[in-house]
Hints:
homodimer; mainly alpha; Arc Repressor Mutant, subunit A; 3-stranded antiparallel beta sheet; 7 helices; DNA-binding
Amino acid sequence: MLQLKDLPTPDVLAKFAIRYPDADVTAVSSVLQLLRVATDLSIALDACLSKHGLLQGRWWVLILLMREENKTSQPSILAEKAGVTRATMTGLLDGLEQSGLIARVLAKEDRRTVLINLTDAGVGKLDSVMPDYYRRIRCCMQGLDEEQRQQLQKILALINLGIPALT
Amino acid sequence: MLQLKDLPTPDVLAKFAIRYPDADVTAVSSVLQLLRVATDLSIALDACLSKHGLLQGRWWVLILLMREENKTSQPSILAEKAGVTRATMTGLLDGLEQSGLIARVLAKEDRRTVLINLTDAGVGKLDSVMPDYYRRIRCCMQGLDEEQRQQLQKILALINLGIPALT
DNA sequence: TTGACATAGTTAGCCAGCTAATTATAATGA
DNA sequence: TCATTATAATTAGCTGGCTAACTATGTCAA
């Protein structure tokens, strides 16, 4: 995702709206600001993860495993939940296995499947990352009171409703 | 950016909040939903661009040039405004030049700089993409009235304030 | 039983970002 | 003046996504 450092000023938007009458100025500026804030957030959180030697993809796999009762799952399920292809998940798991944060174990009941285990080292890694990560999220949301957080969630849900119609 | 298909349910969040007391549950769920909606939006808009044979990076360069009075700029300035490195901008411009949408012209006053011109074909490409793009944005924001759009912008600005403190 | 199909995971190769090093030109100060 | 430093753009090589093709295993119906 691009960082969109230079959002259009109102007069630039207005000029584009003259050339392209389909433009809904307040919709466009809202969407661009939304994309921009999300990108900046994502970059800032990436920086936090990389301080701990992690990238977003691998970190998310650790979280997904941590959610499981027995800290175990399968590559295809992890891929689905993380929103990446199975090929990409293979690569993520390769990296995590090399770092000793997960272990691959062959399943007995179906020899096609591989079970992915979060190791103690993996749990330890999360225990060192998550407090830092959560502290940062708390910090950047501290300017919003509970009502504003609910407003945000409601508005995001409304936008989300419109997304399927785009495809 | 990951697609985050599987956001934590409230009870998963609560369990994590027990292990990691720094977690601010409503902050975390707001941020995750924000990232998720933004990613989905970005993916949907990418799909729109790719129908027209464009990728986000190249398309954004065309827009930046279109904003200029004389439809001209420089690689380093474009890189800064698009939030990519100059090396990446070189690659984006290579692609656009091959498609004939921009032209490189050597500057006379400083022979280190290259002037980038949006060609007529480049303008034509924007003229075919933008109406479609704007129509989609209008469509996904149509569920929000003017007041909600303003609320969103205000809330995003508040979050944005907190981001610098993260780094 | 066995041939067709489905599923799990991996491999190979592409692409668009990135950093670091390189080339060419300009600006500056002893 | 000319050595040093700064700047503009590019090139080379890395990485983590992707798609498509492949291997191995399981399922199911004729």
